[in-house]
Design a protein that fits this description.
The chain has about 600 residues and is of the alpha+beta class. The chain is built from 20 helices and 12 strands. It is about 55% helix and about 10% strand. The strands form 3 sheets. Strands 3, 4, 5, 6, 7, 10, 11 and 12 form an 8-stranded mixed β-sheet that branches. Strands 1-2 form a two-stranded antiparallel sheet. It has a two-stranded antiparallel sheet with strand order 8-9. It starts with 7 loop residues before the first helix and ends in a 6-residue tail after the last helix.
Length: about 600
């Protein structure tokens, strides 16, 4: 497995030219994110990711986390890497200074998180969930919960988890059976949860579980779910740790990938009930959990970006070194590294272009989160929130699908050696494969995009995005000369009308076209941002500033994306509109 080096040049470019970080730093509360601060943060994160976290990726895949007498032992070096992460203050990068955080914009946090995920996806899941738990408590926690738990979560001294899924329920959270019984100022939690990422481990002193459960008098279905804070160790009023709570990890899942990340089966209340504390209002737990879940979905989308980048770096390094055959481009007939073969070059460009487009969309969306949080104008905040809501399922699904595709292409670049574990290429594909599944499968994301976001306002938020894309066509300096972006926008408008028309007649028909619709939106939005990148690079070249080779490569990569990916976007139209074929097929014949 090759070393990992954060693509700092492309990260800076995407932050400045796509997310418009200079605009964000003018917002109240973001003024301290000065260029020298951002440079230092990204440089130091790259150093920790590359030198400390990344070397553990292969070790973790081989050693795996293991359950021994009720304690989960992490692979060699994981605890030390986490301690370096905590000591560096990385866990509170975008958290409120009121609770010990640094209060930097979330788009900077997104770039830093991409580095952790590229370096070691399994390891990165632990701090990722803790950040989400802290955000939820900051918004909905009681003053006591904030005083006892939030500072320690922000500091990274304790970690957090989400406890949603149960064996009989899966993604249908309305079917969960975990019970919560009122007992004075707290509740007793009894039940079992599965697929709990980092539900037990040895890297932090305490684990703060956020658990969905049902009260005895709760209404049926998802409307009867409440959210509870259930610590591994009870916490005394002075913040010190008390007795062990009545919860335990009973087994670890044996998974295709992310072997070092302990995916736990958690049992609550084997000896009378685990003590938990209500977060938010009774029977409003699913609504509360979506605060953490939506943040997690954006982070999971970043995982697609990250694993794609890592797989690309590995494939590129191998292609530059592996000598095989005589490429047609070799004038003297000498054997050359396989990067000289036209199809290998095409595959690498495909990986590169997809990674850059996914990064652009993820950073752009993170920038909308900052505008929705910090902009002083209520109307602008609402507009940014609508854009964030619209694109969150797209980032989660489209970027993770691309991550799997890029990792698979990376194996193809390696040829037979890619199928051999020792090269490390296979690990990227195995690790990437979970991302389209967890935090709501990509099919669920597509249903959310169509069933909630699109139908809620009858396409108004999407229409505003389309207008912005069309307005950009006039300022691209010829970077849509072949009209691929214009054709993609036209296809997106037609697909939106088809979805809305189908939904008016039969929602099932519309949802049958939801996945190709999400793919279409992601492809076109990625093409728009790649064209914007090319236009920005062109402006820099005209001024004579910046690294010429980097800027020329940016333009060429955008052109490749337009020719090889964006050009295919209109071909998704029949699948979007063809829901009746799906719904009309005889189930007995499937």
């Amino acid at each position: 497995m090759t070393e990992y080096a954060a693509p700092l040049a492309d990260m800076h470019f995407a932050l400045d030219e796509i997310a418009r970080l200079p605009e964000i730093t003018q917002l109240p509360g973001c003024e301290h994110a000065l260029p020298d601060v951002v440079d230092a943060v990204l440089a130091e994160a790259a150093k920790l990711a590359g030198e400390v976290v990344a070397p553990l990726n292969r070790i973790g895949d081989i050693e795996k986390s293991r359950l021994e007498n009720g304690v989960v032992r992490t692979p060699a070096g994981f605890k030390e890497a986490y301690r370096a992460y905590v000591d560096g203050g990385w866990s509170g990068l975008s958290s409120s200074p009121a609770y010990g955080g640094q209060g930097l914009p979330r788009v900077i946090d997104a770039a830093v998180n991409e580095m952790w995920m590229s370096a070691n996806l399994a390891w990165s899941l632990c701090p990722m969930l803790s950040v989400g738990a802290g955000e939820l408590l900051e918004l909905l926690g009681t003053e006591r919960q904030k005083r006892l738990y939030l500072d320690r979560l922000v500091a990274g001294a304790w970690t957090g988890t989400m406890n949603l899924t149960e064996p009989q329920a899966g993604s249908d959270l309305g079917a969960l059976r975990t019970r919560a019984l009122r007992e004075g100022d707290h509740y007793r939690i009894v039940g079992q949860k599965i697929f709990i990422t980092w539900g037990e481990h040895d890297m932090a002193a305490n684990i703060v579980h956020l658990v969905l459960a049902r009260l005895p008098d709760a209404p049926p279905g998802s409307k009867g779910i409440s959210l509870f804070l259930v610590p591994k160790y009870l916490v005394n009023d002075d913040g010190s740790l008390g007795a062990r709570n009545d919860l335990r990890c009973v087994s670890l899942e044996h998974k295709l990938g992310i072997h070092a990340s302990p995916t736990c089966v958690m049992s609550y209340g084997d000896d009378g009930g685990a003590i938990g504390y209500l977060v938010g209002a009774e029977n409003r737990g699913l609504e509360a959990m979506f605060v953490m879940m939506n943040a997690a979905r954006l982070h999971v989308g970043l995982q697609g970006v990250a694993i794609g980048e890592r797989a690309y770096q590995q494939a590129r390094a191998y292609a530059r070194e592996r000598v095989q055959g005589k490429p047609v481009t070799a004038k003297d007939g000498h054997r050359l590294p396989i990067v000289h073969h036209p199809d290998v070059r095409r595959m690498l460009l495909s990986m590169r272009a997809a990674s850059e487009a996914a990064r652009a969309l993820a950073y752009y969306t993170a920038g909308q989160a900052d505008r929705a949080r910090y902009h002083p104008d209520a109307g602008r905040r609402a507009k940014a929130q609508a854009r964030l809501d619209l694109l969150t399922p797209v980032v989660k699904a489209w970027c993770t699908d691309l991550g799997v595709e890029i990792a698979s292409t990376g194996i193809q670049v390696h040829g037979g050696m890619g199928f051999v574990e020792e090269t490390g290429a296979a690990q990227h594909l195995r690790d990437a494969r979970i991302a389209p599944i967890y935090e709501g499968t990509n099919g669920i994301q597509a249903n959310d995009l169509v069933g909630r976001k699109l139908l809620r306002d009858q396409g108004a938020a999407l229409g505003e995005l389309v207008v912005e894309m069309r307005n950009a066509l006039g300022s691209l300096n010829g970077h849509d000369a072949d009209g691929h972006l214009a054709h993609g926008i036209n296809a997106l408008e037609r697909a939106t009308r088809a979805i809305l028309d189908n939904a008016a007649d039969d929602l099932g028909t519309a949802l049958a076209g939801a996945v190709p619709y999400l793919q279409l939106l992601g492809t076109v939005a990625g093409g728009w941002l790649m064209a914007e990148s090319a236009a920005a690079a062109d402006r820099w070249l005209r001024t004579g500033a910046g690294d010429r080779r980097f800027l020329e490569a940016k333009i060429a990569t955008a052109r490749f994306y337009a020719e090889h990916r964006l050009a295919q976007a209109p071909a998704l139209l029949p699948a979007v509109a063809g829901g009746r074929t799906v719904m009309g097929f005889d189930l007995d014949l499937l």
